[in-house]
Design brief:
heterodimer; A: about 250 residues; alpha+beta; Immunoglobulin-like; 2 domains; 6-stranded mixed sheet; 4-stranded antiparallel sheet; 5 helices; extended; B: about 300 residues; mainly alpha; two-stranded antiparallel sheet; two-stranded antiparallel ribbon; 12 helices; about 70% helix; globular
Chain lengths: ~250, ~300
């Protein structure tokens, strides 16, 4: 069923390419990922057609979050969190695909358009030396790569023929909630010929999402429920045991 | 069977949590100590973030204490006037405790402070219990007299003299003592801070303090202590929920139900077993938890950098 749907969209896409013949056109298999307690990760299929010469670069960026990197220090044998740097408004997910073959070339182009994980922007409140910031920034990217939230390397794009391409975007099970943006660039001779942006929404669904949502939006009520539930259980177990189970 | 904890944000085995609750409730009911000293470290060991472990354990203490309190109420073993002064100090103490807690959490030091306080308290409590058990054992075996009990009162002699001179003295008719209200307020203020930081009921400190500092009659001590714990733990749970969003209701309900049942069986089993042997067992268990926590403090982390993603 799902395959048929993708195939159908694909056909439509090719048709539309023939009709409008834009330099770059693409679509994705799903705009929404629903995360429930059973969530094991998700894949989104992206397909497109390029009708002009040039290289395709695709970035997938996750929701903006605040991150703290702590460096453990040792005092009298005890390990504790020493220096901490807060990176504000940085991406919680970053994945990069491209058709560039030459590693040197791609870095140059990426820097020009501020693409790639090394060009991710963030805000820092404290007045820190650039070397210190860089030390912690490298760790931030490294730790996010370990969590599979950032892709460690640039992934290639599969071409089915001269114009048609497809790729699979992997979202791990520990994915952060929020709005993701897939951006598709067609770059030729240092200029962007075409640009397309597609949003993907990652939502939390199910009972536990409701509870966690309730706990943060109605915290007073949540706290009262926690207290009164405990009082109620205390009373009832005491009652039942006193009545039905003898000393 | 796995269940996802919405606040702790990890899946846990439901039977593991229920077994944990039954065990801590059972031991708590048997020894009359709060289950917090066992529940909080166990929860941390299975991977629950320590702020959630502490706050959810506070939630569980409410129901465990109510269960015991009702029995003492029936027998009239609660000094309500004294209890209310303890509640006053405890509410202030636990409110300040939760503020300290959230300050430490924001500074990234809460895990460290929780681990250190646990190592200190578990270490000293278990060693004291072990030495008590040892003395009892020697007493029985060789008929030696270590004359404890009365020593304790002598230790606090200097403190009691100072207390005599404090203002705001009032008569507590149920306990038949005449003492400054500042004493119970200060006492429970300190306990309140500990309750919020550690997720324990604090009975292990409150009960000896009531006996030797407030000099309350021993039959009123446990009931009155439970009376104030219910209020302090409720205040701490509520504030933990609204300031730090640390209380996990799913985990809480599982722990509350299982530990309440465990406590009932524990208090019944207490009559049937050798008190000294079970005390020794508990002391060894607490000492093992202490060592495990100490190991975590001293062992080299696999990566000295760590990442926190803020909500």
């Amino acid at each position: 069923m799902k395959f048929l749907k993708i195939f159908y969209t694909f056909c439509l896409l090719i048709l539309s390419c023939e009709t409008y013949a834009g330099p770059l056109i693409s679509g994705i298999s799903a705009n929404e990922i629903n995360v429930d307690t059973e969530f094991k990760g998700a894949q989104i299929l992206l397909f497109g057609a390029k009708n002009d010469a040039g290289n395709v670069v695709i970035t997938v960026r996750g929701p903006r979050k605040n991150f703290i990197i702590s460096k453990k220090e040792n005092l009298l044998g005890v390990w504790f969190n020493g220096e901490r740097i807060k990176f504000k408004n940085s991406y919680g997910f970053y994945s990069l695909f491209s058709t560039y073959n030459d590693g040197e070339m791609i870095q140059q182009e990426l820097n020009e358009y501020e693409l790639g994980k090394n060009n991710i922007q963030f805000e820092i409140q404290d007045n820190l030396s650039p070397t210190k910031i860089n030390e912690f920034r490298v760790q931030l990217i490294d730790l996010l790569e370990q969590k599979k939230l950032y892709s460690a390397s640039t992934k290639p794009i599969d071409f089915l023929d001269e114009t048609l391409f497809k790729l699979i975007i992997d979202f791990p099970k520990n994915i952060l909630l929020g709005t993701y943006v897939i951006e598709i660039y067609l770059i030729n001779n240092g200029s962007v010929l075409s640009f397309q942006s597609i949003p993907v929404y990652v939502n939390q669904v199910g009972v536990s999402a409701k509870i966690s949502n309730f706990a943060s939006t109605q915290s007073v009520l949540y706290g009262l429920i926690a207290v009164f539930l405990a009082i109620f259980v205390g009373f009832t177990t005491n009652y039942f045991f006193a009545r039905f189970i003898k000393k | 069977m796995q269940i996802y904890l919405p606040i702790a944000e990890i899946p846990v085995n439901i039977f593991l949590i229920l077994a944990l609750g039954l065990l801590t409730g059972f031991l708590a009911g048997m020894f009359g100590i709060g289950g917090g000293f066992l529940a909080t470290p166990f929860l941390i060991f299975i991977g629950i973030p320590s702020p959630v472990a502490v706050s959810t354990s506070t939630n569980q203490i409410i129901s465990a204490s109510i269960s015991g309190l009702l029995a003492h109420f029936k027998k009239g073993n609660v000094d309500i006037k004294m209890g209310l002064f303890l509640v006053l100090g405890g509410i202030i103490g636990s409110s300040i405790g939760v503020s300290i807690f959230s300050l430490l959490k924001n500074a990234g030091q809460i895990d460290l402070v929780i681990a250190i306080t646990y190592v200190l308290f578990l270490g000293s409590i278990s060693l004291m219990m072990l030495s008590d058990s040892f003395k009892n054992f020697i007493d029985k075996k060789f008929g030696m007299d270590w004359h404890h009990r009365n020593d304790e009162a002598v230790k606090f002699q200097w403190l009691l003299k100072k207390i005599e001179n404090l203002p705001f003295k009032t008569y507590f008719s149920r306990s038949e003592i005449y003492i400054s209200v500042l004493v119970p307020i200060t006492l429970s203020f300190g306990i309140g801070i500990l309750v919020s930081l550690m997720g324990v009921g604090g009975g292990f400190l409150m009960i000896p303090a009531m006996l030797y500092i407030l000099r309350m009659p021993s039959n009123l001590v446990v009931g009155t202590s439970l009376f104030q714990i219910v209020f302090i733990a409720s205040n701490a749970t509520f504030l933990q929920a609204i300031t730090g969003n640390n209380v996990d209701l799913v985990l809480g309900v599982l722990m509350i139900l299982s530990s309440a049942i465990g406590a009932q069986f524990g208090s019944r089993a207490a009559y049937k077993v050798d008190a000294n042997a079970t005390r020794t067992f508990l002391a060894v268990l607490l000492l093992m938890i202490c060592f495990k926590m100490m190991f975590q403090l001293f062992s080299q982390p696999s990566n000295i950098y760590s990442l926190d993603i803020l909500k």
